[in-house]
């Protein structure tokens, strides 16, 4: 074996033994060894020997007693210099970490890291000394300090560092239920620590929660960055035996690595790679998930994950929360002291911009240093303008149009290539004098044309999928309640929704059996024309894909809101139960089932299902608002009022909680209480379009009418009509106000409208 191939084998082996997951290790070996079967076989043999030797040394053998091995191995009680080993607290592919007691000149607990027996190759020793030198160069309160170093009696190097008794940063934050702001304050200290490392010329390259531990000092959390085992020097070697990345070695942990690390070319990694990994850590702190989840690694494999990191843009944090299941989103929100709506609202905007800037695939568009990243977060925390910003609307629309155009342009190219192929075939057939030669040429040309057509068709399908994803993403953006509240964007929003409906209509015309296209058009129609508009499309989606719980749940929602006719209530009940049968974790389906039962007069059954919904759901303000709403409708007024009050207590800043409580107090005859709660709700969200937005305005306007403050009631009642133009009550009350103000024509018009709407809204 040549020196080069030996170094390649050693490099691959060094990484492979640190990958515990068998499938991940296999993916890595396939990438690193390529087509060299002999190299892969040799690496696999050495990896197997490594782990077999570890198992052998951990138990007594037949040929060699454990007593004979003791002088060669470290164990609790062993003295290494002035350090007594107490217990093993960590292990990697190349080294073992012990908690040890320093005996002189002071007694204290420390961490001692030592190379494993048999792993003292030049490459491993180089990495080990690189870590020791990297830590020794730094002096920062949030980086574990090196205290000492040396060699054992057998010549194996070790070093001693500060003992950090903590837990991974994400786990600590979740267990302690830290708020978003507290998480960000703690995260900024990590950014400053990494900035210090960068200023010392060190890139960490493996930032992840398990390498950022949190301990408590005087009752306050303190983050410490550890494990510089794959650190890289900037511009100069760490030691004469510095780590050097060769032969496409992958350095880092896949879920946290930057796009340039995913290229497996360590020579092109700079400090902005750590900025990306910090962005992943921030993303996980905020959402409880990494941008590209563990499921992607398990399902698609390491190569596909690396390609995703290099080529795809992840969902922004607030969007990700909306994609989680009800149980998962509630868990994530609860760990941050919020409900799902509050967490989404908190992340939307500046935090989305900041995190996505750190996660830019193009590193020139990222924060250029960890310090810049921390500074922008601190600006957010101090309510100052942040450096990061959203992509402009024009930029997003251009991308959408470009992607949409590509789908149709590529399809046209496919058709053109087929026409050209046919023309060439006819021309060749006419050349009878050269039949054999031209027949062979025609066959080759047609084969190439078919291959080209297949290739173009695949590109068309890929671009078609990209266009569809873009429209779906746009639909989610225009569905955002806060966008709807900006009156100046009303026409733009309507135009985008109409474009989305047209887009999905074309998809349906091209593929009439595409259930998802019907469901997506239904969603757009609901946002554009009201809750009853999507019924036909959702019914079609269910007919095409009867096993999709989301479609059944959507129909249960629509039928429970719509006409009061019994057949609609029965359909709501049937679809809710079918959704639960398919997916018992769809919590809202239980609420729709209970609502439908109540509407059908089956009060005891409804009460039982509402209680089941309560028991399955997290105890959040949002849950209690829904319980208050449902129980009031079946006549359980005292429990309903109590749940509404608990919702406000759990989240005093919840618009929905105050809006629901105001509605129930109004119906209970407590006008002053209703006015107070509705005023609070509107102060929280003056332009809200949420479920209780119209209710809050209706309540306050109605109370003002009862007080005789007719002119003052008009603005609130008009706003209620704008929000829910299909509901009769605000028209009825505004008509009363106009009548008392002697504006009889307006009063009559409102009363006529209320009469028209009453059968469908009550």
TrEMBL record:
Q: Which domain of life is it from?
A: Bacteria
Query: Where in the numbering of this chain does the Protein kinase domain appear?
Result: 83-381
Statement: the UniProt record of this protein carries the keyword Secreted = no
Question: Which EC number applies?
Answer: 2.7.11.1
Give start and end residues of every TPR repeat.
515-548, 621-654, 694-727, 728-761
Coiled-coil segments: 441-468
- InterPro entries reported in the protein's UniProt record: Kinase-like_dom_sf (IPR011009), Prot_kinase_dom (IPR000719), Protein_kinase_ATP_BS (IPR017441), Ser/Thr_kinase_AS (IPR008271), TPR-like_helical_dom_sf (IPR011990), TPR_2 (IPR013105), TPR_rpt (IPR019734)
Which positions are annotated as binding ATP? 113
Keywords of the record, alphabetical order, are: ATP-binding, Coiled coil, Kinase, Nucleotide-binding, Repeat, TPR repeat, Transferase
Which of the seven top EC classes does this enzyme belong to?
transferase
- SMART domains in the record: S_TKc, TPR
Gene Ontology molecular functions: ATP binding; protein serine/threonine kinase activity
Q: Name one Pfam family in it.
A: TPR_2
- Protein name in UniProt: Serine/threonine-protein kinase StkP
Q: What is the lineage of its organism?
A: Bacteria, Pseudomonadati, Planctomycetota, Planctomycetia, Pirellulales
The gene from which this protein is expressed is stkP_1
